[in-house]
Write a structure and sequence with these properties.
Largest sheet: 10 strands, antiparallel
Number of strands: 10
Order of helices and strands: HHHEEEEHHHHHHHEEEEEE
Radius of gyration: 21 Å
Shape: globular
Strand content: 25-35%
Structural class: alpha+beta
Oligomer: single chain
Helix content: 25-40%
Amino acid sequence: MIRLLLSKFLKILPNPLYNYNSKLLSKLISNDSLINELIIKKRFQTLWRESLGYNITKETYKIIKLKTKKEKEFIKASVTIIHKFSLTNCPKSFVSKELINYIFIIKKDKSKKFIHELYTEETLPALYNESSPLDNNFSSLNNKSRIDYWREKIDLIDEISLLFTKPSRIYRSNYIDTKYSSPYNPLKSIAYAQRHALNYNKDFKSFDKEGGDCTNFISQCINHGGISVSNTWKPYTHPWLRVNELYYYLLRRGLGQDITNIKPYPIGSIIQFYSNKKGFFSHSGIITKELANGDYLYCCHSYDKINFPLSEIFPLMYDKIRVVEIY
């Protein structure tokens, strides 16, 4: 019953804006504020993609893992979903995929069950906790602030589009080093990233449940591409595992340079993401493809993504980026 309800909801998500309305959503959702939030978010996504000259096609959501827990009058459903789509401005051989960890709050109304709330691990990590009691999280949810967030984004869409195409909110380190010769092969790194973005290499320990596996994965990628291990950079030293320590290790060893202000970014470069909410660079990925409109595809772990558009994440979810070219 729960799986059927969620599957029906996931089939609605790819609908175009003109066919995405409260009448359609209210058949499955009991919370009017959540319905309004989903509609305004869809409007922003549509306008945002139009401003950058692309659209999404062949979009699907599929449940691959479902776990439920009854709490008081609600049911908490922890769900892992594979989200897949194609971009209109990208070669057909590239299909973007991501694994999304959802929590759905299900409420029973008479004989029917409805979705009352939902949030994801990446967009609302503070609220996403499978093991915590429902009332610890549930009271802190605020649909109004999330609706206001998307309304503000719509009002500022021209400015946000400019920020994406120009490096006006981009971070650059003061640390500058000289290029040295290196056997780094970005095509090997990219091949490894695409092979193991969604299917983790079992030869390496995963840190998904211990703070995140993103930089562990990126270290594997560039090591496979030719960057040799050392006494200080090897599994599972701090520079191998931590976002900032990998960044400074590469720059100080002359294995890379910060090229955040220098577009275009070469494939095989490392991209790191800064969140104002966290106050530091907290996430790493690797660039796999440059697109004609100035967008990029990347792969990462912890919020697993393969050939995923940068524009779907930055500057919407993360406030700044920095990019390191490896050589």
